[in-house]
Amino acid sequence: MMKFHFDCVFYYVSDLGRAISFYSDVLGFRLTSRDVVARFDVDGVLFELVPSGERGKLKEGGNARLCLKVDDISQTLEYLKMKGARVGQFQKAENGKLASFQDPDGNEVCLWQYD
Q1: CA dist., res. 105 & res. 109, Å (int)
Q2: Whose CA is closest to 108, among 88, 94, 90?
Q3: Closest CA to 47 of 61, 31, 63
Q4: For 1, which of 21, 55, 74, 92 is 20 to 30 Å away at the CA?
């Protein structure tokens, strides 16, 4: 059985600085780190803000994703394919690999493998 671990919930944002100000100043979330993304600790849950970049204009109504941490993203994608999930290819990121798949209702779930 493949083992999945909760990693984070994240939102794509169009302006990282503005979003950091909102989540820290207005909502009182504690910023724990910032590099390519901003990370907050919300009652022990990792919450990230990710620049939308080439994704362009964000959809109205939200864009949150559940992100699961895995040890081997390639092996995990193969496992999910065998189970009938619709999976995408992984992409290399600054500090790991990212991929996504869809649940039976079409909701996107992300996979993350840290380097």
Answers
A1: 11
A2: 88
A3: 31
A4: 92
Structural domain harbouring 59: 5-114
User: In this structure, are residues 65 and 110 in contact, taking their beta carbons and an 8 Å threshold?
Assistant: yes
Distance CA 57, CA 38 (A): 20
4: how many CB neighbours lie within 10 A of its CB?
14
How many whole angstroms separate alpha carbon 31 and alpha carbon 20? 8
pLDDT digits (tens, 9 = 90+) for 5-55: 999 999 888 889 999 998 999 888 999 999 999 999 998 999 999 888 765
Look at the chain and report how many structural domains it folds into.
Answer: 1
pTM: 0.70
Tens digits of residue pLDDT in 76-89: 999 999 988 889 99
Query: Which residue, 40, 36, 48, is CA-closest to 9?
Result: 48
